[in-house]
UniProtKB/TrEMBL annotation:
Residue runs in coiled coils: none
Gene3D superfamilies assigned: 3.30.70.1890, 3.30.70.1900
Gene: cas6
Domain CRISPR-associated protein Cas6 C-terminal span(s) in chain numbering: 120-237
Protein name: CRISPR system precrRNA processing endoribonuclease RAMP protein Cas6
One Pfam family, short name: CRISPR_Cas6
Lineage, uppermost ranks: Bacteria, Bacillati, Bacillota, Bacilli, Bacillales
Amino acid sequence: MMYVMTLDTHLRKKVNFPGPFTRQLHAFLLKMIKGVNPILSKQLHDSKEKTSFAIFVDSRSSIKICSTDREVITCLQTSFLDNPMINVETETFKINEIHVKKRLLSESMQLLDDVKNLKIEFQTPTAFTHSGKYYILPEPKRIFSSALKTYNQSEETTEQLIWDDLLPIIDKLVMIDINIKSKPISYGRFTVNGFVGKIIWNINNLTREEKRFLSMLLTCMQVMGVGTKTTWGMGKIYATTTCVGKSTGGARKR
């Protein structure tokens, strides 16, 4: 289970997403959580994985805060109901409405038998880290292992899965199209290199059970993003599928 908090607001001036604003917003949200639950705030700040929540700015009027931890959303909701304002270095604005939804893995997009191809779009710059170094190549193993971490953090997950459970599925994916370009992001004091674009895989070789598991990982990816610095707006993903003889207009859901 994952949680999505949508803040309906209006940014008075144009800002880059992601960029300094999302970095400052992350720090502001941690401060808000600290005011309600100092222990949780410290855990989020000190976590090496930093995958407990993600921030995506859809437009100048919509900010999404996504988390696998219900307490993160509860703390923020408590704070915003008490003081519906966001005050960061580059912007101060009021929150008009707050919406919270649950996303269940059991309600994942369904990769049914007639699904032939899977397309993943990297809508904001995406990067991965290993041993302190950035990697900006869209390697399937890095993409899906990132989703696996989110899957294992979900409250619905009754059994932790390991990389060996995922590897046979990854090996069956056949890349048929790729259009990727590098795109750096300036966070003010430093720049992070990432990539944007799309990849299309043929998934005909997957069994029905493998497709079911992959569909849950795709839901994790679309809610929480993939890679590093999703708390700063990186790694936003959108998935679509193509069926035999036709194309879907978006992620297929049951």
